[in-house]
Amino acid sequence: NAGVMQNPRHLVRRRGQEARLRCSPMKGHSHVYWYRQLPEEGLKFMVYLQKENIIDESGMPKERFSAEFPKEGPSILRIQQVVRGDSAAYFCASSPASGYSGNTIYFGEGSWLTVV
Amino acid sequence: AQKITQTQPGMFVQEKEAVTLDCTYDTSDQSYGLFWYKQPSSGEMIFLIYQGSYDEQNATEGRYSLNFQKARKSANLVISASQLGDSAMYFCAMRGNNDMRFGAGTRLTVKP
Description:
The complex is a heterodimer. Chain A has strands at residues 5-7, 10-13, 19-24, 31-37, 43-50, 53-56, 65-68, 75-79, 88-95, 106-107, 111-115. In chain A, the strands form 2 sheets. In chain A, strands 2, 4, 5, 6, 9, 10 and 11 form a 7-stranded mixed β-sheet that branches. The radius of gyration of chain A is 13 Å and the shape is globular. Chain A is mostly beta strands. Chain B is built from no helices and 12 strands. Chain B has strands spanning 3-5, 10-14, 19-21, 24-26, 33-39, 46-52, 60-61, 64-69, 74-79, 88-95, 100-102, 106-111. In chain B, the strands form 3 sheets. In chain B, strands 2, 5, 6, 10, 11 and 12 form a 6-stranded mixed β-sheet that branches. In chain B, strands 3-9-8-7 form a 4-stranded antiparallel β-sheet, with no helix packed on it. Chain B is globular. The interface between A and B is medium-sized, with 26 and 25 residues.
């Protein structure tokens, strides 16, 4: 859904550099989700955030990865000291509220990270 | 913990025929939502259809319908009158009280 904006769409980093991926949710959405998709695999949940709060980070690697969703501005997924195994597509999604209700989750077009 | 299972890594269907993509789930949440997404080769995630756990009627959206069997915890996607453009990866997902989890996906190939 074009309403969720991710940038950059493609990012190339050398091993050891930092990667920052940004996600601007749809207008009015206060919940953001980050997913990682390795080549030929499904989406793996990483982290779920509300404004200024991390709700669930059970899918985040313990080291090098962090995420934030400040009161103002986009959500940031930060990967420090990237390694080749971090090469993947990173999808951001947003929703207006939590819970099971019919509020669906809208995805951005993804950010493709390549580590060389 | 929630778990989504798609047991068909790949499926083939003849153009204009119907195809069913399987999805089973496991959750302890009383209320939840079930979703199907399509991911073409271009990579974007396209929302197809949604079913709420308390919805009595099976959801339908054009050529897509969701065969929801709550007691069996299954939420199969039925695509009628397949088209060549339906060739893509299809992901089943479930949303409970918090996050949303995905199955491993099924790659559908429509044959002309």
